[in-house]
């Protein structure tokens, strides 16, 4: 995740170690203010070294570098970073009928939370655009799952973008930044005035089968086949 943030913010800079990567991923470097990156980051490393071990600067540098390495060993817990151009890992794009736009689902770095991000991209360019048309987006019950009654079944609900949930007005959202967060397996319905509804289901990632967690004998029942009415 931190590598992704560094590359996104500074695509023309190649960090030489984790210390430089950490400064880039946090957005600490400002080219117009700090000048050449490598000259600036060497000064930062010297300052940190003097703080960590003033009696031995080289030892202080080692401490600063090792602290940055430990930072990269921590698992990422951030959702919603959009893919960069050329990054098609766990990215799914489907064109919307009778529209110049497509629905894009992206799931990199969101595996542990079992989530996907969603945005709208112009089909011809692949570029994300904020609310490019009038629509409503809903979660709906899975049509393939039968339940005993309405109290047992999943409920429908309207979805709002992350930015809208934070209280931002459409004019305050950075161009192309708008996104939704959905869980794996969610069934969704896109409604547009004057058009047929569009249904889609968020993919479920294939994972290794978890070991059976109960120390118990197992009874299996055969499902009854119900004839169509």
Relevant terms:
alpha+beta, 6 helices, five-stranded antiparallel β-sheet, 229 residues, four-stranded antiparallel β-sheet
Task: Provide a quick synopsis of the model.
With 229 residues, this protein is of the alpha+beta class. It has helices at residues 2-9, 18-25, 31-34, 37-52, 57-73, 162-165; strands spanning 91-95, 101-106, 115-122, 128-129, 136-140, 157-158, 180-183, 187-191, 198-201. The protein has 2 domains: 2-73, no CATH class; 91-201, no CATH class.
Write the layout of secondary structure elements.
Layout: H1 2-9, H2 18-25, H3 31-34, H4 37-52, H5 57-73, E1 91-95, E2 101-106, E3 115-122, E4 128-129, E5 136-140, E6 157-158, H6 162-165, E7 180-183, E8 187-191, E9 198-201
Antiparallel strand pairs: 1-2, 2-3, 3-4, 3-7, 5-6, 5-8, 8-9
Helix pairs in contact: 1-2, 2-5, 4-5
Detailed description of the structure:
The protein is α+β, with helices and mostly antiparallel strands and 229 residues long. The protein folds into two domains: 2-73, no CATH class; 91-201, no CATH class. The chain has helices at 2-9, 18-25, 31-34, 37-52, 57-73, 162-165; strands at 91-95, 101-106, 115-122, 128-129, 136-140, 157-158, 180-183, 187-191, 198-201. The strands form two sheets. Strands 1, 2, 3, 4 and 7 form a five-stranded antiparallel beta sheet that branches. Strands 6-5-8-9 form a four-stranded antiparallel beta sheet, with no helix packed on it. The longest helix has 17 residues, at 57-73. It is flat, with a radius of gyration of 24 Å.
